[in-house]
UniProtKB/TrEMBL annotation:
The keyword Ubl conjugation applies. Residues 45-113 form the HMG box domain. The keyword Phosphoprotein applies. This is HMG box transcription factor BBX. Keywords: DNA-binding, Isopeptide bond, Nucleus, Phosphoprotein, Transcription, Transcription regulation, Ubl conjugation. Residues 346-368 have a biased composition (Low complexity).
Length: 869
DNA sequence: CTGAATGAAAT
DNA sequence: ATTTCATTCAG
């Protein structure tokens, strides 16, 4: 069975196929699982970050602020330099945190293997493996208890529980949809990919379905036939939504039941899924499927209804309707008791699988049908190579898909839009990526601000709220003030409810935030981001990410923060929604508590160490939503996530964030310590940076390649490099005589950090083989370059000139090197190297300030001259 | 998807 | 001793 199913992915299927598809998928999944890879390939949690990565994560934003143009690679280099200079003591913090993180992670995932590999599942290559990497924390052990022991499935070392996580939302149905939505929101682009590759988690999905099914039943309480269930589900769903939208806070009442049963079921679900390693699915699955299917429909229908209710005109794809509205118009209680939903209509329609009310609604319904197709799509998925190359190969083989992953092209299917809308909380709005969700945003602390929407459009009412928000934001920045936030939220909600256009609210916020940003220097990113968001649909994820960074950065410069938060808030909203739905029990708890302000408390409580509970918790809550995410999950930062995340975040934030200046100083000091010369360096340092360096590299490569250096291995060179590598600043270099250089060289060696340290991989090396010409492959060139650097001692003063821009310019023009004679003299190389060194030195020292040296003229000429020599 | 860096773990 | 992979995100 499995063989058949999994192997292929059904490209597209009609509606009818849905069930079929699912079935196949399941089988496939099962097969995969059975194959044994289950654990590994399934959804592996991401490995915990090491100290350096934590450091990078924490400081990258800073680096980028300083060097906006610098790309990540360059930033990484700088970060590496910083890291290198970081004092042990300081590093220790990161190291410790990393350790804690790791320990916690391991606790959560007892059998976790960093390198799953080994199994190379032949599998259908792309699929199963495809997603492999799920999210970081694998999830769950039981929420209640953490211990790994709980983990039910010891099957393999990897986590068994994953199953649940693995479950493919798309297949799951309404609930899954919600999850999906959440994820979608989180990672818009990824979603598409996820969907497509049903493959990935076949087994999991499979389980998920059955489990889901059960869940559905539970929630409904009555085991009624699917049809009836549907209604119930619908109602409940609406209710939950209403709750969420309406309040996140308070009220107690409404949801208790809902909430209660939903939640527990979830856990059960998780357990079930995990426990049943592979259910016999056949029977269950069918039932499950149908049930799920229906459920999904219901959900859609309900949504459609809402939409309709809100917006009389269904036609618009993206009418700006808000989900919340629905809440507004209905009482949760009422809903529960008797669903009167459908102002607009569709209840009946909804009931029928077909769906459909209006075109728009049809769209919504469509998704369901379509869903399968999506799944079938290839998936580019991001997962890197998770399973190693095989997966990659597979992907490649499949070819086409890649792009899809990046942007959710899947848009074709309305589903996406729907999902997004749901995620955002704004149904109608769907298309506009930017707006953050109005929703409950605040569940946590941090993020109330929305800045993205650059356009303020109309800002409807709610001015008050804005101010309040601003204040709140500020406060939050300083400290998270939940209460206010909450209040604001409520206000917003109300407002939203009053008006269908929640967008405005957001805009307002955005408008405000811009100001702040404007004030701040660092906004560039933000701005860009914003722009992007407007432009692109998938932006949200990025935005979120950025937000995270921003937060980190904020610590240092609080001002800047405004923009990102919005994203976060969006996320929070999503989570909230999910929670409200009962999908994330733990979250809900948190949310509730959080509203009261507990968040902080909780954090503080655990502050010290990662509690098992916390981890568990977090995993549980987080994992669900994230599963889909695969690559980027960004769990930590998520606003509404569980304690774990909070803790993580908190800890992460607590990590010292060193300002560039600090590093500069350090460099200086270090240099001084090591060598006297360094002093100069420090002063002179400028922001030059990696980027330029990289470009130079390119140039150098070319040059080098021309005369083909010989050094295949950097090793030999290393020494030399070490020697020369002084970080001397341009000025210094100029001035500095070779002799000093030598001294510095040592120092440099110290500073040297790693950049070039690492050996190239074999594969790469292979890659490096010389060409017939005798040229070296790029890699080699680099090495050669390095060598040259080593030698750099030479006196090329001018080179030092290269600044970021200067360098760029130079680079641009450069090319000249090609013309150079094949036989570059060592001296010439040395010069080149010197340039590089300079670069490096600057970089190392790099100061934020930009000014500088532009006096230096382009080095290209110099280079040439050198070459001539 | 790649890469740039470091580090932990696995092979 | 060598590979993977974790984070980030522009190319």
């Amino acid at each position: 069975m499995k063989g058949g199913g999994r192997g292929k992915e059904p490209p597209v299927e009609g509606e009818g196929t849905v069930l079929c598809v699912q079935t196949e998928g399941k089988e496939a999944a099962c097969g995969a699982v059975e194959e044994g890879e289950e654990d590994t390939s399934e959804q592996r949690a991401r490995r915990p970050m090491n100290a350096f990565l934590l450091f990078c994560k924490r400081h990258r934003s800073l680096v980028r602020q300083e060097h906006p143009r610098l790309d990540n690679r360059g930033a990484t280099k700088i970060l590496a330099d910083w890291w290198a200079v970081l004092e042990p003591k300081e590093k220790q913090k990161y190291t410790d945190m990393a350790k804690e993180y790791k320990d916690a992670f391991m606790k959560a995932n007892p059998g976790y293997k960093w390198c799953p590999t080994t199994n190379k599942p032949v599998k259908s290559s792309s699929q199963a493996v495809g997603n492999a990497r799920k999210k970081v924390w694998s999830f769950p052990t039981n929420p209640t208890k953490d211990p790994p022991v709980t983990k039910k499935v010891p099957k393999t070392d990897n986590k068994p529980q994953l199953n649940f996580a693995m479950a493919d939302p798309t297949k799951m149905g309404g609930l899954s949809l919600l999850l999906l939505a959440g994820e979608h929101a989180l990672t818009a682009r990824e979603l598409s990919s996820n969907t497509s590759p049903a493959v990935v988690t076949n087994a999991t999905k499979h389980h998920g379905k059955s489990a889901l099914f059960q869940l559905a039943e539970i929630s409904s309480n009555t085991h009624r036939p699917p049809a009836e269930c549907k209604q119930e589900e619908e109602e409940s769903t609406l209710g939950s939504l209403a709750e969420s939208s309406g309040n996140s806070v308070p009220g107690p009442a409404v949801s208790p039941k809902n909430h209660g049963h939903a939640a527990s079921p979830l856990f059960q679900l998780a357990e079930i899924s995990s426990s049943t390693s592979k259910p016999s699915v056949s029977d269950g699955k069918q039932c499950g499927q149908s049930a799920l299917f229906q459920l999904a429909e219901m959900c859609l229908a309900s949504e459609a209804e809402k939409r309709g209710a809100l917006c009389p005109q269904p036609a618009g794809d993206s009418a700006p309707v808000l989900p919340e509205d629905s809440s507004t118009h209905m009482d949760p209680m009422d809903q529960r008791d008797s669903p009167d939903l459908p102002p607009s209509a569709p209840s009946s329609s909804s009931s029928s699988s077909s769906s459909s009310t209006s075109p728009s609604s049809s769209a919504s319904s469509t998704p369901t049908d379509k869903t399968p197709p999506l799944l079938s799509q290839p998936k580019n998925v991001k997962k890197k190579k998770k399973d190693c190359k095989e997966s990659l190969k597979a992907d490649k083989t499949q070819g086409s898909v890649k792009k899809a992953s990046k942007k959710r092209q899947s848009s074709e299917s309305d589903l996406d839009s729907v999902i997004e809308a749901v995620a955002k909380g704004t149904w109608g709005a769907g298309e506009t990526p930017r707006k953050k969700a109005r929703v409950p945003v605040s569940d946590k602390s941090p993020s109330p601000e929305p800045q993205h929407s650059p356009k303020k459009k109309t800002k409807p009412k709610v001015k008050k709220p804005l101010k309040a928000k601003e204040e709140a934001l500020e406060e939050e920045e300083e400290e998270e003030e939940e209460e206010e936030v909450v209040v604001q939220k409520e206000e917003e909600e109300e407002e939203d409810g009053g008006k269908p256009q929640d967008l405005p609210v957001v805009k307002e916020e955005s408008a405000i935030s811009p100001k702040r940003d404007g004030v701040e220097a660092p906004c560039e990113k933000t701005d860009s981001l914003v722009g992007r968001e407007d432009m692109e649909p998938h932006s949200p994820l990025e935005a979120l990410v950025k937000c995270e960074e921003r937060d980190a950065a904020d610590i240092k410069t609080p001002e800047s923060c405004g923009s990102r938060k919005s994203e976060r808030s969006c996320k929070g909203a999503l989570y909230k929604t999910l929670v409200s739905e009962g999908m994330l029990t733990s979250l809900r708890a948190n949310v509730d508590r959080g509203k009261r302000g507990s968040i902080r408390g909780s954090v503080s409580d655990q502050e010290g160490a990662w509690t098992d509970e916390a981890w568990t918790f977090a995993q549980t809550s987080a994992s669900n939503p994230k599963k889909l995410k695969k690559s980027k999950s960004k769990d930590e930062t998520a606003p509404g996530l569980g304690k774990l995340e909070e803790e993580f975040e908190k800890k992460f934030n607590s990590l010292p964030q060193y300002s560039p200046l600090t590093f500069d100083k350090k460099n200086t000091s270090v240099a001084k310590k090591k060598k006297p010369c360094s002093t100069i360096l420090a002063d002179q340092v400028k922001p030059t940076k990696g980027s330029s360096a990289s470009q130079k590299k390119t140039l150098f490569h070319k040059i080098v390649s021309k005369y083909k250096h010989k050094k295949e291995k950097p090793n030999t060179l290393d020494k030399a490099i070490a020697v020369c590598q002084s970080p001397v600043p341009e000025a210094v270099q100029k001035d500095t005589p070779c002799g000093q250089v030598a001294l510095e060289a040592q120092r440099a060696a110290d500073m040297l950090v790693g950049s070039q340290k690492r050996k190239a991989r074999k594969s790469k090396i292979t890659h490096l083989v010389r060409t017939a010409d005798g040229r070296l492959s790029p890699a080699e060139e680099d090495k050669a370059k390095e060598l040259s650097q080593d030698k750099d001692e030479k006196p090329c003063t001018e080179e030092s000139l290269c600044n970021e821009e200067g360098c760029y310019a130079a680079v641009d023009r450069r090319d000249a090197p090609e013309g150079l004679p094949a036989f570059f003299s060592l001296a010439a190389l040395a010069e080149v190297a010197a340039m590089e060194n300079v670069h490096r030195g600057q970089r190392a020292v790099s100061l934020p300030s930009e000014g500088q040296a532009k006096d230096m003229s382009p080095q290209t000429p110099v280079l040439i001259s050198c070459a001539d020599q």
